[in-house]
Amino acid sequence: PFLRLLEAQLQDQRREHEEEVEALKNEVDAMKEELEKQQQAFLQTLQLSPEAQVEFGLQQEITRLTNENLDLKELLEKLEKNEKKLKKQLKIYMKKVQDFEASQAAVPAERRHHERNMQVAVQRKEKDFQGMLEYYKEDEPLLIRNLIT
């Protein structure tokens, strides 16, 4: 069983390695093609007059900048969509927080009143007796905190 596990892991690693090698070969081939295109364009520009070489260079730069601008525009649109989505989510979460705070504000007011009555009652009872104490399950953390302090 251990050898089979090691063999399976080795096969997985070999498969991953082969996939990586194949991807790198494809990348190298693509780079070779790009290099050949650039060399051909360079040789063509060398055959042109100096004025034509400058104009060709400017056209190449304009094309490059146009492509770069299109890529940036696409990225900007993507980021704007993401921003709108995040703003919507933020509004939803803010509404949930406000609703939660409103519900918590109502409960503590009642609990604070109940706590004051309970503290007063406990203070009086502490002097009178020791023993069992009755409390609501939801008041347990408050009771523990008061006992500690």
From TrEMBL:
Residues 3-103 form a coiled coil. It comes from the Eukaryota. Keywords: Coiled coil. This is Unconventional myosin-Vb. It comes from Charadrius vociferus. The lineage of its organism: Eukaryota, Metazoa, Chordata, Craniata, Vertebrata.
